[in-house]
Amino acid sequence: MAANKTVTKKVTTELPYNEDAERVVLGCAMLSKDYCLDILTSLEEDDFFFGKHKFIFRAISALANRNVDVDVLTVAEELDNLKELENIGGAKYLAECTNTFVAASTLTFYIRIVQDNSVLRKMLTTIRGIDTEYRTQEIENINDFILDSENRFKESISKRHISSFVTAQEIAPIIEESLEKLQDADNDSDVIGVSTGYEKLNQITQGFKPGELIIVAARPAVGKTALCLNFAHKIATHSKKAVAIFSLEMSKEQLFNRLVAMDSCVEAKKINSGRLGSATERVKVLNSIKTLANTKIYIDDTPSIKLNDIINKSTKLQAHEPDLSLIIVDYLGLVQVANKNGRSPDSRQEEVRQISLALKALARDLKVPVIAVSQLSRAVEKRDSQRPVMSDLRDSGNIEQDADIVILLYREDYYADKKTGSAANKKGGQLTDSEKFELAKAQKEKELGAQIPGNASYTEVIVAKNRAGQTGVCRLFFHKDYVRFDAPSREWEEAINAIAEDNN
User: Measured between alpha carbons, how far is 462 from 471 in angstroms, rounded to an integer?
Assistant: First the structure.
């Protein structure tokens, strides 16, 4: 019987590389213009392990950027100008690199070898750096260290996920199959993805689609958080899907009480105080609590939560709830960002840019729509018309740029008292026709709203940007007492339209 043998694997600290692959790639770049373009768009200088190969790639890249033909002679001249020709072994070494010319498919194989070794080196270097940091430095917060390490690791292998071009011929069957599924599915009208719960808003947006970043913005107390909760409530109760809510301003108890109010149509202040007026209200509230308890609404009320926590918690939740259909971050202005050194970005604009980009990436990675609540700047209140536009978004134009959908809220009654006071104080009491109309309209809306329960307020949900479709306005009632949004009745719409007709 043969004795058992112990196989000892050689331990090495050397980073991986493939010198032959690097040399073949560089040689092909100097022999073919088409190959050169493939290489320059697939690799970077840091992907090469050897310093001499980095210099050669740098010279090739510089020539290509100047639209100079790339060959052994021009590369040699460029390296000579850079004072690096002798360091790489002279023109003789460049000629050696061109000794092997491979087919296009084989070149792709060699490029992949260089890429894979580059990613592996970065990954190992990152792991070793994390290990060294853990062993030699004082770790104040283990959770922060873990999250930062995880993100550094992801960044080190991110290039591994870079996709290449896909032909139209390859894409066509995917789209055809998707269309067949949509036609066979029992969807609400033209809704793609998840329904907003409001027919008019669905007609404009086609619902909230996987991978979309949606911004809901308004001035304080207009109803942006309430509208997002209504989206969550309808998705969780009607579609029976999972929803994640990151609440940075309100506690989980406050948020749940709001959900109970909108579900039961009992005043939120009564629920908050526990002073329910009748047995009927108590039954409604208890039934709503039971209903909500059976939904898949997940609430995280960590104040000033870090961006990394939102990303990691959302990813873990989706692993637990594959039908996660919406993520809400309320609100963007309170999310914290920390760089690798643990410090915040130098400016608020840079911080918001990082947050919006990260939330967009999160939506795409998880294939789930992400709603970020944002505030509008005070500039909107200084104009004659307070109806918001996208330029009113606070802190950064990046929000507008990164968002797939931007929803702005406008309530006439929010500004009505200010307008009334301003008009009353106007010298000589002289009002323009426009001011007279706005005052008459506000008064009429107030009268009509008084007939509707829940302290109703007529609200314009303005879809100011829609990357995948049209823009427009969805008009809803905001029952402030119930924290609930509902579509207006046909009678209400006719009464409001009559005001405009009378003005004309």
Answer: 8
pLDDT at 42: 86
pLDDT digits 0-9 by tens, 109-167: 899 999 999 999 999 999 999 999 999 988 888 877 887 888 788 888 876 655 566 77
C-alpha pair distances (Å), 335 with each of 140, 311, 354, 363: 21, 12, 11, 16
**Which has more confidence, 426 or 430?**
430
* Domain boundaries along the sequence of the chain: 19-159, 191-503
Of the CATH numbers 3.30.420.180, 3.30.300.30, 1.10.860.10, 1.10.287.130, which one belongs to the domain with range 19-159?
A: 1.10.860.10
Per-residue CA distances from 42 to 24, 55, 58, 78, 111 (Å): 14, 17, 14, 22, 7
Residues belonging to the active site: 249
Among 224, 152, 272, residue whose Cα is nearest residue 476: 224
Here the tokens at position 58 are: 């740098």
The domain defined by 191-503 folds into: Rossmann fold (3.40.50)
pTM: predicted TM-score of the whole model, two decimal places: 0.69
Q: Find all residues with CB under 8 Å of 240, minimum gap 6, and list them.
A: 295, 296
**Contact criterion met (CB below 8 Å) for 396 and 356:** yes
Amino acid letter for position 241: K
Cα separation, 25 vs 385, whole angstroms: 62
* CB neighbours of residue 327 within 10 Å: 26
- Contact criterion met (CB below 8 Å) for 390 and 373: no
| pLDDT tens figures, 444-474 | 666 665 667 678 888 999 999 999 889 999 9
CA atoms within 13 A on the CB side of 40: 19
Give the C-alpha separation, 495 to 256, whole Å: 35
